[in-house]
Structures are given as structure tokens and as C-alpha cells.
Amino acid sequence: MTRSFFDMFPGGRGYQINIDVNTTLPWGAPNPNFGRPFIASNNTRSTNKSTQTSERLTAYLELDFARNTKRLQWLGRHNLTGYLNRYDLDEKTFSGSNSLDLGWTTATRAFVNPATARDDINSPDGLARTVVYIGPSLAQLSSPSGINLQGIQAALKPGTATGWHWDQTKQAYVTREVSITDAMDDESFYRTLTGGSLSRQVIDSQAMIYQARPLKHEWIVATIGWRNDKVKDYRNNGGQNVRDQFNFLDPNHEQFRLPDSPGSVFEESIWSRGFVVHKPPFLKLPRGIDFSVHYSKSQNFQPADARIDIWGNPIAPPGGQSEDRGFSLTLLDGKLNTRFNWYETSSSRASLGLGNIYVDIDARIVRYNTPAQLAAAGWKGPSDVVKRLVNWQEVQTPSQISGVNVTFQMPGNVSDIQSTESKGFEFEGTYNPTNNWRIALNVSQQKAKRANIAPVARQYAAERMAEWTTGATGNLLSDESGDPLRVRVYERLLNGLNATAAREGQYVSELREWRWNVITNYTFDRASRFRGWNVGGAVRWQDEVGIGYPIIDAQVDGKTLEVPDLAKPYMGPSDLKFDAWIGYSRKLWNNRVQWNLQLNIRDLFDEDDLVPVMAQPDGSIAAWVAPQGRIFSLRSTFSF
User: Fold this and answer.
1) Is the pLDDT of residue 417 over 90?
2) Would you state the pLDDT for residue 13?
3) What proportion of the chain, given as a percentage, has pLDDT over 70?
4) What is the pLDDT of residues 584-594, one digit of tens each?
5) Are 485 and 468 in contact (CB under 8 A)?
6) Taking the CB of residue 245, how many other CB atoms lie within 10 A of it?
7) Which of 245, 448, 532, 546 has its CA 20 to 30 A from that of 185?
8) Gap between the Cα atoms of 416 and 50, Å rounded
9) Rounded to an integer, what distance in angstroms lies between the CA atom of residue 541 and that of residue 424?
10) 267 CB contacts (<8 Å, ≥6 apart)?
11) What is the spatial distance between Cα 564 and Cα 616, in angstroms, rounded to a whole number?
12) Do residues 100 and 127 lie in contact, with contact meaning Cβ atoms separated by under 8 Å?
């Protein structure tokens, strides 16, 4: 299966509307677009090719002593199921962008050293950036009210453009026509790949499940299960050794292949066990009452895609365990059935994104400080292990303040982790006042805490903190604002990282704690004039939910940092919705086919008020969403 995705304006700056505030162009001419709103971003295409195969062998054995022998019937009935399975997933992932021609790149990089870097098209000088003006100049306006931005009006596929660049020999700006490749064209795309990776995952699984009903009337049911998974991961993240003279990845390079040996191997065995005890036959209860109790405890293991930390070390797949206990109660001769369940679950090593900022901080140091300034300050930068992992490249680039640019690409399988612990309660009840009328109620409560949040990011930040925030290196420029590095680290990284870490051990306010649903349906009797018809409805309610936090000052390592006040979240509203339906059913073709037709109306009263989903630190609403609104659906089924 092949899937491709192209985004002319990917996230971040691509989602922002800017205003051009330059009165003149770099070569001194008046800027005809001064004051105009525009959107701009680097474009990107990603393509994934995957092949999945699975082979399974299942065996089943039943021993029914109660039915097949009188002398051993007290042993009851036993079932044993076993299976073997092999799952194989091969994936190829490629990324690319619209790029400029070689003539433009060599012209703009004519004085870059070494000379072998002058044809580096896969660089900021050689990749096309898209800028689209979406309205007239706003320079004379005092308010954005009524500007009526027109948005993008046509497909953006320019084959050529006029480029301006500085000619160091002439000491003047010159122009030239530039050809632009189209990343949506497969031939161009695979010839100008900015990145790519190969991966293969092989999972060998074996499992056995044993279920026993050892007593007469089978009022005790016990289950035990075992499973073993062995996960082997192979990967090639497309390093510098598989790139051509233009710094594009060569998908046909002899070294761009999967290794013979897996990069990581994980194996884990897990167990599950549980039982259900129904009312014993010797226990006498009032007529119409029945009950059962249940208990189960199980481990789980999720064979996920091979993940690594920022040093390239493999991360074990996610895992966890759960425990359930409760009882069921039947009253009124089966008209009322209820089930009560209390549970606790824990998950470990769940994936958590690791942003580029941890590498980008050091990349910016190179871009905004000359090599002489870096040497004078004693800056060392990331370890060689990290540089190799992200394909760190330093290239002379005259347009950069320091004269040097850094490019890097974080492999797609670099990850951080976190764990969660949750507990809750579930109730399900069904009541049948008559044979035709059913009423159901379910109620649930859930509370969750996070644990072991972002250990990779926290360890990496701790290792780099001394160079980032102390001594002469802490005073290096961090970006075009002129702020020293130590300021950027605290404002852009540590504030967010400490805010994330502060959530450890705290209940998750973004999770709705309570919710309930009531459902009812009435089917008209066969003797009724409305036979075949049914009508019903439902009421759905969800608790309020956290949408933001106030910001407070906290002392961390002697520094005052801004962190969220997790004890006082801003809460969004609770949610109440009503549904309704009406259906018709009858037999067709001499009673050989059952036809069912049903009209469903979801959100009957069409609640269309905007719902707040994000709050600013001062409590004002930062983001709203429009509810889905009323939905009609008509479903017809034929059963035979």
C-alpha cells in the first residue's frame, strides 16, 4: 500500500497570516507588497510504502467430562486454545520538497567553501519556499475589520520564477530565471529526496488460553492465559553515506538497504487470569434474584514500531497491566440486569513526542555566532552520537549571520515516553418493563495520573544545561532577537519542559471524570396496528473538562520559571445531547429475508453554540470549536 501526503503550507508558520512590513526589497527597490497580508512556509511531501504479511496457526481442544463420562463428570468441561503467529511489516518512507535548479544554487553559493558544498541543492539556498499574498495592503488601516482576505485562489505550481541574489564579484544584486521542480511529480520527487528511511518489523507470537468449568452446573468459570512476543526491528534512517553530490538521498544507493541483523530485539511474556462465580445451585435466594462475581488481572504488551531515544538507544515497546473486580445482579425474574465494575490500569512507556527544539537550540548557536565567537566561548555542541543520528551538517552559507548554516533531520522513530495510572468505576443496567420496551443506563467514572513523563528530554536537557546557561557559552546569541542563549533556553525550553514535568502525580484535568447515557427503545407488538415499527431515544451527558491553567512563578534550580497551576485548571462546560430514532422491520420473499430500515437523528436539538477548548493563562478563551450539529442518517439492512 502506498500513501502520499503533500502540504504546501505545513504546520507552524504555515498556519499564520503575516503582514509584509518591508518598505524596500533587499536590492533597494520599493516593495510593491508593503503592508499586504501573506502566508509563507516550506512545502513538503511525504510518501509511505508498506507491505504487511501475517501467518497464523490455531489449535483448539475441548474436554467435556460432564457430557461424555459419568465416572469423571465431576471434572466438568475444559477448553484449551493455542496459536502461533508471524507478522511482518516492511515500510519505505520518503520526504521531499519543491527545489530549485543547480544553476541557481551554484550561483548563490559560488563563494562557499569547501567547493564541494556549492552544489548543495538540499539546503536553504536550494529548496523553494512558498509565499502567497492574500489581500491588499493594510498599511493605511487602523483595524483589520472588514478586510475580507481572499485566501488562495489557484493551484500553486510555478515551473519557473525570477530570482535575485548577491553577486560577490560584481558587488551587486543580479537576476536569473530559476526552474522549480514539482514534488508532486514522482520522477522529480524521487530524484530530489530530502530524507528517507527503511524499516522492517518481524513479530513472532505464541499464546495459550485455558478455560475451566470444573463443577456441575458450571457455576465456576476460571481462565488463565499466556502470551509471548518477540519483536525484531531493522532500520536504515538514510544517513550522509547514501546522499548524492546535491545532498539528496539516493534511494538506489547500495548502502541504502536494511541491515542483515536487527537493530533491536525485544521479547516479553505476559499472563492473564480471572474467574467468574455464578450463584451456586445450593444457595437459595428469593425468587427472581440471581448474581455473579468476577475478577481478572492481566498484563499487556504492545509490539510497536521500533523507537529510539535521542542517543539512538532502543526504547522497549509499551506495556502495562489492568485489574477488574465487581459483580452482576439480576432482579425481577430477569427484567432488571445490572453490572458493577471497579478497575485499575497502568501503562508504561507510551510514546511522547520529542521536539526538534533540543537540537535546534544548538543549530541556532552555529547560525548566529561566528566560528571565532564559538571558539572563544568554548562551545562544544551536541555529542557526536547525536550529530550522527540527526545527520547534522554545517555548511557555509553567506545569507546566515555567522556565514554557516546547520541542517539536521530528526529520524521519525525518535521518541520520548510517559506512563499513566488510571482507576474508575463502571455501571451498566438494563430494565425491560415489558417484552417490547427496553431501558438501558450506563455510568462511568475515570481518573488518571501521569508518571515518568519525558525522561529522555529531561536527561538530555540536564546534560546540555551547563553549556546552555552558564559561562561564556550562555551569553552566545540565540537568534535574530539578540537574546543570549541562557534566556532562550529558559523561556523557550525549560518553561515548557518543567510545566510538562509538573504534571507527574497530578490528576489529568483534560479527562472528563464522569459520563452517563440513558437509552430507551420501544418495539410495537405484532398485534398492534403499528407492528414492525420501533421508536427510541437517548440522552448523553459528559462532565466538564480542563481547557487550560493559570501561570504561576516557581523556583527551579534557583531560577524563577513560569509553570501552570495544576491545582486550579480552567474548566470547559459539560456536554448534554439528545438523540432519537424510528425504524421499521419486516420479512420479505416468503420470510427468507429480514429487512430493517431505521432513521437516526443525532443531536436532536441541534446545539450549535461554539464550545471553548483552550484557555489563555488569564482565563480568556484562546480557541473554540463548532459542534458537529444535528446529523440525520438512514440505514437499511437485509439479513438472510
Assistant:
1) yes
2) 64
3) 98
4) 999 998 888 99
5) yes
6) 11
7) 245
8) 24
9) 17
10) 228, 229, 230, 231
11) 11
12) yes
Is the separation of the CB atoms in 180 and 128 below 8 Å? Answer: yes
pLDDT tens by residue, 602-613: 999 987 788 999
CA distance 469 to 486: 4
- Helix 455-469 vs helix 357-368: angle between axes, to the nearest 10 degrees? 20
**Helix, strand, coil % over all residues of the chain, rounded to 5:** 15, 50, 35
Residue 252 grid cell:
538506489
Q: Are 314 and 264 in contact (CB under 8 A)?
A: yes
pTM of the predicted structure, to 2 decimals: 0.77
Bridge-based pairing of strands 77-96 and 44-64 is: antiparallel
| Dihedral angle, C-alpha 359, 361, 362, 366, nearest 10 ° | 130
pLDDT at 12: 60
**Cell numbers at 491, concatenated:** 523561556
Q: What angle do CA 458, 93, 186 make, to 5 degrees?
A: 140
Beta-carbon count within 10 A of 421 CB = 16
**Position of cell 520527487?**
189
Task: Using alpha carbons, list the distances in angstroms from residue 525 to 109, 438, 580.
Answer: 84, 13, 20
pLDDT band at 14 (very low <50, low <70, confident <90, very high): low
Give the model's pLDDT for residue 557: 64
Distances in Å between the Cα of 175 and the Cα atoms of 162, 182, 237 are: 7, 22, 38
Query: Which range (53-62, 99-108, 143-152, 523-532) has the least confidence?
Result: 143-152
**For residues 634 and 194, what is the distance between their CA atoms, to the nearest angstrom?**
47
- Which residue carries 539536521 as its cell? 408
Q: CA-CA distance, 167 to 540, in Å (whole number)?
A: 68
**CA distances for 623 relative to 200, 249, 495, 615, angstroms:** 40, 40, 22, 7
Which three-class secondary structure state does DSSP give residue 307? strand
Q: Which residue has the cell 535575485?
A: 164
Burial of 286 (0-12, 13-18, 19+ CB in 10 A): exposed
227 close to 206: Cβ distance less than 8 angstroms? yes
pLDDT band at 404 (very low <50, low <70, confident <90, very high): confident
Tens of pLDDT, residue by residue over 190-223, are: 999 999 999 999 999 999 999 999 888 889 999 9
* Nearest alpha-carbon partner for 207 in 56, 376, 386: 56
As a whole number of angstroms, the distance between CA 573 and CA 576 comes to 10
